[in-house]
Amino acid sequence: MSTLAHTMMTAARSTDSGLAGPGELDRYPFGEAPVAERVGAPVWEPAEPELGRVGRRTAGSRGRGLHGQLVQQLGQMIVSGDLGSDRPLVPEEIGQRFEVSRTVVRESLRVLEAKGLVSARPNVGTRVRPVSDWNLLDPDIIEWRAFGPQRDNQRRELSELRWTIEPLAARLAAGHGRADIQQRLSDMVEIMAHAMGQGDALTYSRADAEFHSLLIQVAGNRMLEHLSGIVSSALQVSGGPVTGCDRPNDASLGHHGRIADALAAGDGAAAEAAMRQLLTVHPEVERVVPAPREH
User: Fold this and answer.
1) pLDDT tens, 188-227?
2) pLDDT of 75 higher than 90
């Protein structure tokens, strides 16, 4: 086992916080030295106290204290339908219910307004907007929907979106033959292999998220790169065996390895094919991704 894999698994077992997000790959010290010489454990943020009945924190609320927690609480309540458009959201009532200041409430509502969840108008107040106005690509909303009543639709939609994004990204990434990028992808596969052997699902999922995020970021398409956060969110909230990324197994690991090998060889067609195989549902799941639907 390389020093990198050992340090990552040691660090992952010391915390139960969320996955690494897109762009966090540089926090791992493996771009500057050969694998055998790489040292230093990555730093992952510890979990923060949760507010009310919320079961887990979202990426958008990390490190924001009461403000971030209130955004999460209200966001989940809106997405779940607990807060509807039938009555305005009164800042004074919210502040009393959650025991926070009006400043915290005001700033939280501004965040939710930016996400398209609420709108504030003179003489009308702040009200919940229809789903058609929500920014459904926002990582927070993705997670809130994934743990709400729309969880099945959210998982299906995310799987279909990944099916569209990632095979293309894999093909495009094969045209970027940078040795450092290839080494990083290979490192992720190595970490996943050792984590699977140790039964360390947390480290496996983190390396998996880094693999997919990096691949999209090096595809050379800025619009695809902008969508890397969606893939990262999908990996975090899948909640079940929808794709080959959802549970560590030999088949999933093999597909990741074939993708990395195809990218190293500059074979875009092979990389795309391997990614499509990875994103195929498990045999025990009847629904195929992308699933044909009747309209």
Assistant:
1) 999 999 999 999 988 998 899 889 988 988 888 888 887 7
2) yes
Q: Token pair for residue 88?
A: 């305005």
Q: By CB neighbour count within 10 A (0-12 exposed, 13-18 middle, 19+ buried), where does 153 fall?
A: exposed
CA atoms in the 13 A half-sphere facing the CB of 189:
19
Report which DSSP code applies to 126. Answer: E
pTM for the whole structure: 0.65
Half-sphere exposure of 31 (CA within 13 A, CB side): 9
Q: What is the DSSP string of 65-78?
A: HHHHHHHHHHHHHH
CA torsion angle for 83, 89, 95, 98 (degrees, to 10)? 0
- The predicted structure's pLDDT at residue 293: 47
Amino acid letter at 68? G
Helix (H, G, I), strand (E, B) or coil at 49: coil
- At 49-65, the pLDDT tens digits run 332 223 333 344 444 58
H helices present in 99-138, as ranges: 102-114
| DSSP letter (8 states) at residue 133 | G
List, in order, residues 6 or more apart from 249 with CB less than 8 Å away: 196
Rounded to an integer, what distance in angstroms lies between the CA atom of residue 269 and that of residue 267? Answer: 6
N-to-C CA span, the chain: 51
Compute and round to an integer the Cα radius of gyration of the chain.
Answer: 21
